[in-house]
TrEMBL record:
The lineage of its organism: Bacteria, Pseudomonadati, Pseudomonadota, Alphaproteobacteria, Sphingomonadales. This is CoA transferase. Gene3D superfamilies: Crotonobetainyl-coa:carnitine coa-transferase, domain 1, formyl-coa transferase, domain 3. Keywords: Transferase. InterPro entries: CoA-transferase_III_domain (IPR050483), CoA-Trfase_fam_III (IPR003673), CoA-Trfase_III_dom3_sf (IPR044855), CoA-Trfase_III_dom_1_sf (IPR023606). It comes from Novosphingobium aerophilum. One of its GO terms (molecular function) is CoA-transferase activity.
Length: 417
């Protein structure tokens, strides 16, 4: 076994919080990464010889011999990794012992999957009544779909999100489209973080832990927001509008003489200013277009008029004119352009941290700036099991002889680095 390295001391508002992360892929790891950024001590438990599924979701892979994918790297910083075979009784017993030192457990096994190992919420609550235990699944712990596996793409379709994403039917490229990021997973991870912090607040006040049942489908449906409200409260069935907005017009992309420009006008004053800028002030006086509601109803007549006026502009000139007029507009950046945007550089969102062997890993940092307790980046995303010996020795007081026995028996594993 390798000698355990002393971990950097965490800072941040969640210092002292201990999280046992039994999750994999994205929703759970995203949640625990946020908790880690804010100072929590996160121990990621992985299966020996397998690890988190996303370690293999490439290319691209990190060129350090680990063959860890860039996908895995985006959601697993500020964690230490231990490899324990939880399907073995002795491995499950090790995890139960670790739970006694934990405040939070996060898992995303199928419903009932951990009960056979004595790692479900009722079993662990009996050992630690104040435990906060968060279960993340595709469809929740009950209901007719509870045993169905849930993946982001499937959830985007079932939730209705894809029905309002993409170009309308009848135009080239029309049809339902998923969002270019796994938003159902990411939002579920954020809701898990919010729910865990709320449950910890309750625990601190009452001494009582609780179970959090969080489903990707529930999360994504809850985020239909204005589109769902349009249907529930106005009877307006949402439809795909491409880059247009269902309520606010104009709020979409337009083609200039040399490229696309985004125009996002949120009120009547902005619309009037914009019509003067493009030398079509009469549009703001037209009763069909004078108010936001009128423009929404009569968008089919308004947009061709705006297309013709905007087509005469060069994109850079129009964007510059909108900036001078205080109007919201811009271009569609490629991701490399976005990451190199002067505002993003000034905000310091792109960060870098080195793995234990010195290999640099670049990542996008925590977006909120806390004036007194800022986010803290102390652990690069670990190799699978690289902290097994250190964690089990520190957490459970296992001797080197015991660690060697467990390693030989296949109960634990360690990646040498």
């Amino acid at each position: 076994m390798t000698e355990p390295a002393a971990p950097p001391s965490p800072t941040g508002p969640l210092v002292g919080l201990r999280v046992l992360d039994l999750s994999r892929v994205l929703a759970g790891p995203w949640c625990t990464q946020v908790l880690g950024d804010l100072g929590a001590e996160v121990i990621k438990v992985e299966q020996p010889g397998q690890g988190d599924d996303t370690r293999r979701w490439g290319p691209p892979f990190l060129d350090d011999g680990s063959r860890d994918s860039a996908y895995y790297l985006c959601a697993n910083r500020n964690k230490r990794s231990v490899a324990i075979n939880l399907s073995a009784p002795e491995g499950a017993a090790l995890i139960r012992r670790m739970v006694l030192n934990a405040d939070v457990v996060v898992e995303n096994f199928r419903v009932g999957g951990l009960a056979r190992y004595g790692l479900d919420y009722p079993s662990l609550r009996a050992l630690k009544p104040d435990l906060v235990y968060c279960s993340i699944t595709g469809f929740g712990q009950d209901g007719p779909y509870k045993d169905v596996g849930g993946y982001d793409f499937l959830i985007q379709g079932l939730s209705g999100l894809m029905s309002v994403t993409g170009l309308p039917d009848g135009v080239p490229g029309g049809g339902p489209m998923k969002v270019g990021l796994p938003v159902s997973d990411l939002f579920t991870g954020l809701y898990a973080t919010i729910s865990i912090l709320a449950a910890l607040r309750h625990r601190d006040q009452t001494g009582e832990g609780q179970h959090i049942d969080l489903a990707l489908l529930d999360t994504q449906v809850s985020l239909l927001t204005n589109q769902a409200s349009n249907w529930l409260n106005g009877g307006m069935a949402p439809r795909r509008l491409g880059n247009a907005h269902p309520n606010t017009v104009p709020y979409q992309d337009f083609r200039c003489a040399d490229g696309e420009v985004l125009v996002a006008l949120g009120n009547d004053r902005q619309f009037r200013t914009f019509t003067r800028l493009i030398e079509r002030p009469e549009l703001a006086d037209d009763p069909r277009f004078s108010t936001s509601a009128d423009r929404s109803v009569n968008r089919a007549e308004l947009i061709p008029e705006m297309n013709a006026a905007i087509a005469r502009w060069k994109a850079e000139d129009l964007i510059g004119a909108m900036e001078q007029a205080g109007l919201p507009g811009g271009k569609v950046n490629e991701i490399p352009e976005a990451l190199d945007h002067p505002q993003i550089r000034a905000r310091g969102l792109v960060q870098e941290i080195a793995r234990r062997d010195g290999t640099p890993v670049k990542f996008l940092g925590f977006p909120a700036r806390l004036s007194a307790t800022p986010a803290d980046y102390r652990h690069a995303p670990p190799r699978s099991g690289e902290d097994t010996a250190a964690v089990l020795e520190d957490e459970l007081g296992l001797t080197k002889h015991e660690l060697e026995r467990l390693l030989t028996a296949g109960i634990i594993a360690e990646t040498l680095s």
